[in-house]
Design brief:
This protein has 238 residues and is an alpha+beta fold. The chain contains six helices and eleven strands.
């Protein structure tokens, strides 16, 4: 997945059981990386991109991701586009989905209170309050917002680390109007995809984010000229 992952388990269980749970999460994330990485020549995504693998022959997880990306393409009027750069790159869906699935597996194993963070995508599960800082888009030593969430997902997509890696499919050029987009809601898979889609929309992204609140997804954004916006229900810590 090309990023550092942090895991916190808040469970009163023996150390060996906790280590086993973390090992299972790491094993799952490595499996995802091996299958979906666009940097690995032997991944299924790379092989499909070169025409060496068809959707019929690929792993069911890849078929699921391709179907979900197609659904999001239709739901976002084409702005969430796994082919926006000209080749298959489902990264805007995969990271959030992989972390959400890891969280589901921990919960299924009886570890209901936990935190998983992976490169701006966070799943904080359980009935406790998790305080999360959203990185300042120009100064990595500062936070733009401090959030207080309970059993929620926080996804941030921006241009401050990887540059113009999100393509506006209308222009065919890197999106540049929004420097940082954060979406908070019940499911990290969708929160991550919505953040990526809003970033790709450039100037239309703020109106799109405003509409997401009706579906339970709050948001914050910073434009490239330094203006900040939040939805009315963003769970800012007091």
């Amino acid at each position: 997945m090309g990023t550092a992952v942090s895991i916190e388990l808040a469970a009163d269980r023996p150390d060996d059981e906790l280590r086993s749970l973390i090992a299972d999460v790491c094993g799952w994330l490595h499996e995802v990386d091996a299958r979906f990485s666009t940097y690995r020549e032997d991944s299924e995504v790379s092989r499909m991109g070169r025409g060496e693998l068809t959707s019929t022959d690929c792993h069911p997880d890849l078929r699921h991701v391709l179907g979900a990306c197609a659904d999001l393409w239709r739901a976002t009027d084409g702005y969430f586009d796994a082919y926006a750069g000209g080749v298959l790159d489902p990264s805007g869906y995969v990271k959030g989905w992989a972390v959400e699935e890891a969280s589901r597996r921990l919960a299924a194993a009886g570890c209901h209170t936990h935190y998983i963070g992976a490169g701006g995508d966070i799943r904080a599960r359980g009935d406790r309050v998790w305080r999360i800082g959203v990185r300042h888009p120009w100064d990595e030593t500062k936070v733009a917002w401090k959030l207080a969430v309970t059993d929620a997902a926080v996804a941030t997509s921006g241009t401050y680390e990887r540059g113009g890696h999100v393509i506006n499919p209308r222009t065919g050029k890197p999106a540049h109007v929004l420097r940082s987009v954060t979406v908070v809601g019940p499911d990290l898979t969708l929160a991550d995809a919505y953040a990526t889609a809003a970033l790709a929309m450039d100037g239309e992204g703020l109106r799109y984010l405003e509409k997401l609140a009706t579906d339970g997804y709050e948001s914050a954004a910073v434009t490239s000229d330094g203006r900040a916006f939040t939805s009315a229900g963003l769970p800012v810590a007091s």
